[in-house]
Each structure stands twice: as structure tokens, then as C-alpha cells.
Amino acid sequence: MARLSDAAIQDALRTLREWRLENGALTRDSTFPDFAAAFAFVTRLALLAERSDHHPDIDIRYNKVRVALLSHDAGGVTERDVKAAGAISAL
Amino acid sequence: MARLSDAAIQDALRTLREWRLENGALTRDSTFPDFAAAFAFVTRLALLAERSDHHPDIDIRYNKVRVALLSHDAGGVTERDVKAAGAISAL
Amino acid sequence: MARLSDAAIQDALRTLREWRLENGALTRDSTFPDFAAAFAFVTRLALLAERSDHHPDIDIRYNKVRVALLSHDAGGVTERDVKAAGAISAL
Amino acid sequence: MARLSDAAIQDALRTLREWRLENGALTRDSTFPDFAAAFAFVTRLALLAERSDHHPDIDIRYNKVRVALLSHDAGGVTERDVKAAGAISAL
User: Fold this and answer.
1) Residue contact D39–A46, C-beta within 8 A
2) ipTM, two decimals
3) For residues A40 and B37, what is the distance between their CA atoms, to the nearest angstrom?
């Protein structure tokens, strides 16, 4: 799958309002009431990742979770990442 | 911790409306949109169980989860189970 | 996918040594040192289930886990269940 | 709980061989065969964290997991982190 141009990424970000481009990856920060709620979200991310065979980077800081999507094989953000970001937002 | 009398259990069940007494255990069935949502709930149950060192029986049937609370050491339902049921309802 | 005959199920069970036929489903019981170890196994089951879109029944009793595989749409055990049982044994 | 001196941390690291001090935190990298195995480990970390009410920072990169332990309230590494590191190594 081809790396998206910067213009195409910016275009995608207009509909992915919680996401931003950071270090070349689609990135989203989420905050939860506590660790248990954060980890339940992380578990849903993990199940979705296995289902779609596309695995985001996930950073857990107690009740905060950062998700970053990047297609390493394509060297950048692809349509697959945009689709995954939409699926994560819909959780 | 002492086993609650049947009257005390019935009294507790008046405030735990989603729960019932089945096979001598406080029991609750929950249905979710899909397996992933059900398993995120199960993960919260697991974290709560470890935190409180009180582990319910958990049955997973795709998008349905049955939770049963019983204090095996007391041979029945105790205040601890009633408290755990309340905590699970609050998730 | 077609329901396997009893003879075909017995044949499959010869290579799935930890499994048995119970209530019409391929069934396996596992015991772990504690709840946390059991739940880590359950999490692997959940990830595998989502990846393969085939979800076993899972019963958690503290450090014991029962897994049951059945293809509800076929009304019995299919090749898919046999394959899933093998994948679970390989975890 | 009091922040450990650099000398005390170096002393603790002699018995915590897989751990290092990085950005002021006890840090360990682990690599697993695949994402599912990595996430099963993360689940055990999560259960241990809730049980002990001490939550490490956790970074997941497909089959690699970084764990970092720091007591934010003490502004550094404490005996609690050393104990948690030992418990994680024992998983």
C-alpha cells in the first residue's frame, strides 16, 4: 500500500478530528477515569489490531493512552492507517 | 466472613437489581454488541478481581458474559460478594 | 462448513490429546498457578478468536479455564473447530 | 516512600539484571514471538499493577514491550519500584 502524500494526510485529518500527525504517524491521546478503564480500551485496541492484522504503537501512562499508526513497510501513513484510525475512533 | 442468611441476600438483591440468586451465587448476565466489547468488560472484571482479591466465576459466550459471585471459604454468599456485585454494576 | 461425523471427531481427538468431546463440543480444561496466569491465557484465546473470527466458549474459575469449541451455524463440530483446537494447544 | 540514592539504585540493579536506569526510571525491554504473546505479558503487568496499586509506564511496539518504573510522588525510584521490578521479572 502506497504512502499517502502530506496533502492526502491533511485531508484525512479533517475527518479524524481527534488525531494529529506526530513523528510521521497518525497519533491520538485519550484520557480515562482510571487505569482499569484505560486498559479496557487498550484491550479493545489489541483485539482490533489482531482482527485487522495492523498493530498500532500503544503507550500507557496510568489513565492516559497514546496510539500511533504508521505503516512501517510503506515508510509512512497509508490508507490502512487512516482506516484503522477511524475504527479506533468508533470504539 | 459469615455466610448471609437467605433473608439478608434477598434484602441485598433489592438494591442489586441486575443480579439474581442462582445455584447459590449472586449471578448477572450481560450482553454486548460483539465479542470485543464483551471481552473489554471481562478485562475490567479481571482487574477488579485482582485489585480486591475476590474472583468471580466468569462465563463468556461470544457477546454474552455471565458473572457469578460466591465465597467458597464461607460456603455461600457473604457481604464481600454483595460489595463486589455493587462494584461490578458500577463499571 | 459441514458438521463432522462422530467417527471423524474421534479421529481428530486422537491427535488433540488434551481435548475431549463434551456436550457436543471439543472441550479442554487448563489449570494455571493463579488467576493472573489463567487470565493471560484467556487473553491469548481472545486475540486468537478475533484473528480467526471463531470464538470458543470460555469459562473462568479462578486458576482454571474451560474452553469449548462448536460451530453453532453447523450444529456441531467442524474442521474449523478441530483447527482452532490445534491452534489453542499450540499457544 | 523516599527516593533512593543513585548508589542504592545501582546496588539494586546488580540483582535486577534485565533492568537499567533510563530517564530516571527502572526500565526493561522484552521481546516476544508475536503481538499476541507480547499482549498476554502486558495483561499480566496490568493485573499486577492493579493488585499492587503501582502502575508502570508500558510501551507496546508489536512484539516488543518496554516497562518503566518510577514513583512520581517521590520524584524518583523508590524501594517500591525495585520490588515491582523484581515481581515483573518473576512473571
Assistant:
1) yes
2) 0.96
3) 9
